[in-house]
Design a protein that fits this description.
It comes from Cellulomonas xylanilytica. Keywords: ATP-binding, Nucleotide-binding, Transport. One of its GO terms (molecular function) is ATP binding. This is ABC transporter ATP-binding protein. By secondary structure, the protein is an alpha/beta fold. The chain has 2 domains: 166 residues, 3-Layer(aba) Sandwich (Rossmann fold), CATH 3.40.50; 54 residues, no CATH class. The chain contains 8 helices and 10 strands. A 6-stranded mixed β-sheet has the order 6-7-8-3-9-10, sandwiched between helices. It has a 4-stranded antiparallel β-sheet with strand order 2-1-4-5, covered by helices on one side. Strand 9 and strand 10 form a beta hairpin. The structure holds adenosine-5'-triphosphate.
């Protein structure tokens, strides 16, 4: 399916609505006229080769890079240019690395995702319970095995019950069993009405967990559709999977 034929899912207006987004770094066009939408309850995967522009798109949504063109709205309103105000707008993000405060406990790390809340302790406890982290709550986060630390990063993103969750390579470094658990968590989160956009290199995970997939290459959307549609797109095979396609 071509980028121009992006299907519009039923189920309401887009929660995240990116339109005509372009980002330039000097002479380099990192994103070129990119549009994508994520509705509440929907999981959208953003894939593409290294350097395709995935992280730049996340950074633009978070106000960390300034677009040269285009608009980004959440629930119909532009996002604040100040990244520190994203949480108040219901936007949460996990990072490619864990981005945890290694000197702090699990609970303190989760609380860090909820600064300014009226009852952060109760919300943090709820999130710790939900992700089976309560038994580790008062341990230094660095003492936990890597998959558990990934869960802490997710708990920190979810503690404020965001309306939009941006997941940056959530499956990275996880084994098959933990990836399956992560998939359930992501689907459960979307089931609560959260709009989820995830960047991921683990294609099987993306194809199993996402409602729709958007493929970037050299900063442009080259394909978009359901996992099956995208998996069967020759342009994706050629650009992303490195398979040379001779017939179109
Ligand atoms: N701050 C920056 N200054 C200059 N160029 C940048 C900057 N950030 C990203 N780029 C360039 O923009 C392009 C897109 O990079 P980006 O990190 O968004 O790609 P990506 O798809 O996330 O790649 P990866 O899968 O390797 O994380 C690349 O060519 C990259 O080198």
């Amino acid at each position: 399916m071509s980028a121009q034929m992006t299907p519009v899912r039923t189920g309401g207006e887009p929660h995240l609505d990116v339109r005509g987004l372009s980002v330039r770094f000097g002479g380099l066009s990192a994103l070129d006229d990119v549009s994508l939408q994520v509705r509440k309850g929907e999981v959208v995967g953003l894939i593409g080769p290294n350097g395709a522009g995935k992280t730049t798109l996340f950074n633009a949504v978070c106000g960390l890079v300034r677009p040269s063109a285009g608009t980004i709205t959440v629930d119909g309103d532009p996002l604040p240019g100040d990244p520190t105000r994203l949480s108040a707008r219901g936007v949460a993000r996990t990072l490619q690395g864990l981005g945890l405060f290694r000197g702090l406990t699990v609970r303190e790390n989760v609380l860090a995702g909820h600064l300014g809340a009226t009852d952060p302790g109760a919300d943090a406890q709820r999130q710790l319970d939900a992700l089976d982290l309560a038994a580790h709550a008062d341990r230094p986060v660095g003492d936990l095995p890597y998959p558990e630390q990934k869960k802490v990063a997710l708990a920190r993103a979810l503690v404020a019950q965001p309306g939009l969750l941006l997941l940056d390579e959530p499956a990275g470094g996880l084994g098959a069993e933990d990836i399956a658990t992560l998939g359930e968590l992501v689907r459960h989160t979307a089931g609560t009405g959260c709009a989820v956009l995830l960047v991921e290199h683990h294609v099987d995970f993306v194809m199993s967990v996402c409602d729709r997939v958007v493929v970037l290459d050299f900063g442009r959307v080259i394909a978009s559709g359901t996992p099956d549609e995208v998996a069967g797109d020759p342009a994706v095979d050629e650009a992303y999977l490195g398979i040379e396609v001779t017939t179109r």
